[in-house]
Structure formats: structure tokens, C-alpha cells
Sequence to fold (396 residues):
Amino acid sequence: MAKGKGGMLRIFIVFLIIEVALVILSGNFSRQIQVVNEEGQFELTHAPVHFDLQAKISEEFQHDKYVADEGHPLEIYGSEGLYNFFAKLSEKFTIFGDPTPIGTFRLLRMLLIVDLVLLTIGFLVFRALKTRPSQPQILFELLYSMFDGFVEESLGKKLIKFTPYVFTIFLFLIVCNMIGMIPIPGFMEPTRNLNVPLGLGLMVVFVVHVTAIAVKGPVGYLKDYMTPLMPLDVIGEAAKGVSIAFRLFGNILGGAIIILVVSSLVKFVLLPIGLNLFFGMFVGAVQAFVFTMLALSYISVAISD
Amino acid sequence: METIDATAMELLANGIMKASAFLGAGICMGIGALGPGVGEGFVGGKACEGIARSPENQSLIMRTMLVGQAVSESTGIYSLVIALLLIFATG
Fold:
């Protein structure tokens, strides 16, 4: 246990160092070194900071737009410069793309990146499967058996086949919620866009009803709704999907906006790292867990008599 | 009576709309945060009692507490979404 904690601490420290280095690299200290030509000296000057909080947050609510204005010169300093660097670096890959997309294009790119991360992790872990497991294998087996236990607890031994579905949702959401911590401009949590949580919520509702029909049979399923309060029941069923979707969406969007506001107040020094740890790791993990647990409990309510 | 020209009228209307949107966002967040605060505190207190009574069930109680808190938090989150929409999505 002590070893595990030390490993976790090491990960945190590495994360902190990387983030501090990136903050410094991206020039968000609003200061920059300038060479003064006449005397050949270096001088610290205040760089003009172009940061419009209102515009930055309003970006969340913008319509889809494919920004590719050619005449606009590329920024060199600041976070924009870092982004341009990565954009140039990855011009050949269609996923990363060149222009700074807004709205759905950005969302789709982030979703593809999340999928790539998941596929890579899955491939790496799967390739190294052993009877005497390595550390990542232990971690994933532990997580999987934990979810196995949850599913068995709430759905029973017969429906243990739901574990892959539930575990996939959990892994996807946890990677989605944490990928926004990577301080590359243009990176966002895919769950910050309402479309992703709403899609997942509709999927959960679909799975719940299909499971109910499969377990109870069509007659038994319809019998549940043959009450005087049928309209309310139907509305309640639809509200389930909307409610878990909005819970996830609101948490992630609220966290992101709080990070933006506090960052602009303290000029991007140090405090956003702690906020990222809280909103990215803690809230992200808890919300992913809550989403999966609620999906499980919806299924277990639907199949119970 | 003085006549007000169209642009001034429009500016006034815009200002009133923005002011009322901000006011609405503040009220929405303030009242919307009451319920989740009470609810989450209640759930947390009960979970403390439960853990004190049966420490061997701690992990189960923690899990149930987290889910329950997340559920009772949702009204606050809805009001947060509404407040953000009011602030940033209206004019």
C-alpha cells in the first residue's frame, strides 16, 4: 500500500513539474526576455497579454465554424504559439489538423484523440498479458474486478455480461474528463460539449429499456406502464437520460469555467494547477464513477419487479 | 415629451436585457445552491453516522454517499447551467 501511495505521489509530482514547465514555456507569466540590440543585453519586458475572458468563455456557446483564415499571421509567443507549434508538428495527421476548429469540429477531434488514447492503452496492456501480471495489468484487472463486483451486486450473477459495457463507459468518461488537463490550447474535455453526455445518456436509456424487455418479456414490460400515472412514468423515463447527461455536462463545464476565471485572475501562475487537480482528477473521476453507478442502478430498477 | 431616437432605444433595451440576465443568473445560482447544500450535508452527516456505527462497511457507505451526493447535487448543477446560459449565451 505504501508503495502504491509513493507511486501516486511521484505521478503527481511529475505532473506538477510538467505543468509548471509548460506554463513557463507558453509564456503565460506575461513577461518575456528581450534582446536589447544596442547594448547587447537581455531585458525582461512585459508582454502584451491578449486574453479576453468573455470571448474565451463565449467560445463554448458558439456555433460551428471552421476557422481557417489564411491571412492571419501565426502567433509565436504565448499559449497560441504553443498551439501553433503542435499544429505545425502534426500537420500531416488529419486528426490533429491545422486550423483551430470551434464547436463540433473541435469536439470530434478531441473524441478521436480520446479514442486513440484508449486504444493505445488497451493495446499496450493487452499485448503484455501474463499469468504473472505486470503493474498496469494489475491495475486494470483490479478495476475490472471491482466493476464486476458492482454489477454482480446490483444486477445479479445472471447479468454479469453488463460489466464490459459499464467498464467501457467508465474508462471513456474518465479519460474524457481528464484530457482537458493537458495544457495544450485547443484541448478540451469532450464531455464539456452537451452532445457527448446527452448521447451517452440516451444510450443508457436505450440499454435500460432493451434490458427490461429482454428480462421481463414484452408483456411484463408493458404491464409496468399500465397504471393511471402512465404519462408521468414516461416523462420520468425520458428525464433519467437527460438528468445524468446534464449532471456530467454541468460539472465539467462549471469546472472548466471556474478554472478559466481563476486563471485570468491570478495570471496563470500556479493556482490553476491545483484547480486542475481538483476539477480534472477528483471531480472527473467522481463524475465518471457516478455516471456508471447511476446507469447500473437504472438498469437494476428497470429489471426488478 | 422628448423623442428618443432608435439607436438610443436599442441601447437601452440591450442594457436592460443584459442587466436582467445577470440579475437572473445571480438569483438562480443563489437559490439553486441552497438545496444541494442542505442535501449533501445531510447525506454526508448520515454517512458519518453510518461509518461510526459500522466501520466495516466503510467502502460501501462511501460509495453510496458519493452517488447520493451526486444525485442531490444535480439541481445545483442545473441552476449552474442556466446561470451560465444567462450570462454568456444571451446577448
